[in-house]
Amino acid sequence: MADRIIGQRVRRIDAESKVTGEALYPGDLSMEGMLHMKILFSERAHARICSIDTSAAEAHPGVVAILTARDVPKNEYGLIRFDQPVLCGPGSEKPGADIVRTTMDQVALIAAETEEAAAAARDLIRVEYEDLPAVFDPFEAMQEDAPQLHADTPGNILTHYHIRKGDMEAGWQAADVVIEGTYTTSWQEHVYLQPEAGLAYLDDERRITVEVAGQWTHEDQAQICHALGLPPEQVRVIYPAIGGAFGGREDMSVQIVLALAVWKLRRPVKITWSREESIRGHHKRHPMTIKAKWGATCEGKITAAEVSIVSDAGAYAYTSSKVLGNATLSCTGPYVVPNAQVDARTVYTNNLPSGAFRGFGGPQGAFAAEGQINKLADALGLDPVELRLRNVLHDGDLMTVGTSPPAGVSIAQVVRECARHSGWQRAEGSWRFDTAYTQPLASSKRRGIGFAAAFKNIGFSFGVAEQSSATVELHGGSEIDEMVLHYAGAEVGQGIHTVLVQMVAEAAGVPMNHVRLILSDTLATEDSGSASASRLTFMAGHAVRGAVEEALKVWNNEERPAIGAYTYHAPATSMFDPQTGHCEPNFAYGYVAEAVEVEVDLETGRIDVLQVVCANDVGHAMNPQMVEGQIEGGIVQAQGYAIMEDFRMRAGHVMTPYFSNYLIPTVLDVPRNVKPVILEYADPRGPWGARGMGEMPFLPFAPAVAAALHEATGIWFDNLPITPERVVRQLRAVGLGGE
């Protein structure tokens, strides 16, 4: 029997190949005789394409083909609804496919013998547009006279959720303090290391094969099959090494057009986007405006919360409805709110589409909820940790949707442990921050510390049926010499492949070096679901353990090789009731709290993050080293979102397409000290007690920074990102800082 492997700090199995360059990413792939592809994006935010003249481009030396909307059999795709054309233009049977609704719409693809020829030909294509009225503000888009982007969506309101709990009038009457606030968040670019790229070809069985970076091989396959009208057995999707994702690869980018080109031309085709094309060509985090009104008693008990959310979905649905669901649930935080009213809308505009991004609506909801809690604490003269602990959810408490979270609620323990590791102490029956503050010598600088907490779903939410399949082969004679795991789950940098090996070895009682993986290939693996929603460890753990158990049964019957397959079906969830919002939204949650210490320069507005303490209940840390990596990475990414990354669009056009004007944290910007506090309160439903945790460290960071800035300056910063310009502007408005 092997020593215990789950819970050990095992080195990543892909570390050496990535450090040495042996690992091949999509942009590294090539094939003899391959063509090179370029894509012509829309020049307008909202217009009808009257004609596309490709004659000059087709005549350019080296050009093999130019494909337009008339070449796509079923010219539509989308994760939630098929509302986006693969290629926009005339000649398609899809109604409305001749209309571009955003500047990231794809109009034509060019295949040529060289990348240079494809790029030159792209610039020779002439498109005649008839401009249509456009709308770029979601509040304006909901007005009666606003342009309508999709005929089946009146008022441009893609989704509207309601929550009605308790008696709001009684809640306000019971409140001694009422706090109102308006919180705004902006777009965020994923900035994964490798821009979109891929290679497509016909394999030995003449299947269309697409090697690309994504987050769900089988969903990519399904989208390709739908758009091209092909059965699944004719399309194969393989993931090589993936250079990050963060939700940005959930939706299609180059997958369908690569398959289309190979299907039409029967030759290998490669595409690699530039960073500018990547920033322009995939979705962003949802901007939201959240108006909140909360009440509490003088004893610090929340009595009521009224919240309104308006989310900018951009031109197409992507995952906007599901993101809005998470924001609707999280906008009142992990607290007992006896009386609640929430109205949440996500709205079509002619901006770039918004979609999945680490946290998936949770960061926006938490920014408002934690802002309200911190303001209530300030108004009541209560410590922010103490106020939270008087209101956090426990097992059996009702959420705003009228049901209890699954057993194993640990937010109280998480808040206490984060506080304890951050300088808070409990004395005389109450929590207080106990560390004396020494302000820096420079008179223009001030320091503060802020606290925030959050919770978030693990797994798909709101009635989406969820499953994950694994197959295990056992080889050997009297002893198991080799175990082969077939699993589709995407390795997007989080370390899941290493954890898979740990799981197989643990479940079978064999050393890790006995385990071999066959991964992320629709031909060789069954559907595992997406590498998203902090779900993969939870879902894979059940699927892998089940497959190992099935294989061992066969092994014990003396069959060689012994093969076991297992599909894990997650517990059911349900959608919001249309009137009350009552539902069972999720089958598991992750819980997190952070304390952030900052120093702000009153003259320049620059914010330095000095220290972050992040307490995260992971249920059971499969590999503590990788958990620490996820905490550190999530915090740095959240830092960019909170105080640096200022994505701008003007009339639907991206104004920040380069790293020279879209600033992300560098090694010189990251917090001076990050202290991960890994907590392990086993999830009763989790494999080996594990919860997902990849998104959780992101959630509380921005509101904790805002609270720290308030302590340092006396000003509440309710608009993200909190850039130096915004800091200086608000400081000057109250007479702080320079002239």
CATH homologous superfamily identity of the largest domain: Aldehyde oxidase/xanthine dehydrogenase, molybdopterin binding domain
Main-sheet strand order equals: 3-5-1-12-9-10-11
- Ranges where pLDDT stays below 50 over 5 or more residues in a row are none
Strand content bin: 25-35%
Global shape: globular
Number of strands: 27
The CATH first-level class of the largest domain comes to: Alpha Beta
User: How much is the average pLDDT?
Assistant: 96
Radius of gyration: 26 Å
Helix content: 10-25%
Report the CATH topology name of the largest domain.
Aldehyde Oxidoreductase, domain 4
Q: Report the CATH architecture of the largest domain.
A: 2-Layer Sandwich
End-to-end gap = 72 Å
Name the assembly state: single chain
Please identify the structural class as seen in this structure: alpha+beta
Largest sheet, if any?
7 strands, mixed
Tally of contiguous helical segments: 17
Taken together, the total number of domains comes to: 3
